[in-house]
Amino acid sequence: MSSHFEYTYSAEVQSEIEAIRRKYLPPEEREDKLAQLRKLDASVGTRALIASMALGILSALVFGAGMCCFLVWSLWAPGALLCVVGVIGMPVAPWLYRKLVEKRKREIAPEILRLAGELSRK
After folding, report:
1. How confident is the model over 34-50, as pLDDT tens digits?
2. Which structural domain, as residue segments, surrounds residue 108?
3. Less Cβ around it within 10 Å: N or C end of the chain?
4. What is the phi/psi pair of residue 43, to 5°?
5. 43 belongs to a structural domain
6. How far is CA 113 from CA 40, 41, 55, in A?
């Protein structure tokens, strides 16, 4: 009689065991490196998009308020001022997006390059 045990698992059982094991790992070990790389890459434009969209929408609303001053209330000076501020803000929004994306890329580039390097060596 043999003195050792031998276990064989099917691929289905192995994947179930791995899924259960991952639930109990610390959060930083749960994600594999490719998932971390994807998450970092996706995060590049998120903040920039929110900031530039907010600026563009706010600028359009200010421009609209200026037009209301002109057309509804016949307030020429405040209307002209609001329209100019709105018109200046709208083309600044895409510029802001590009600058924030560039800044974020510089911030996370070392981490992305490290993860990509680790994944490509495997």
Report:
1. 888 888 898 899 999 99
2. 28-121
3. N
4. -75, -10
5. yes
6. 11, 11, 32
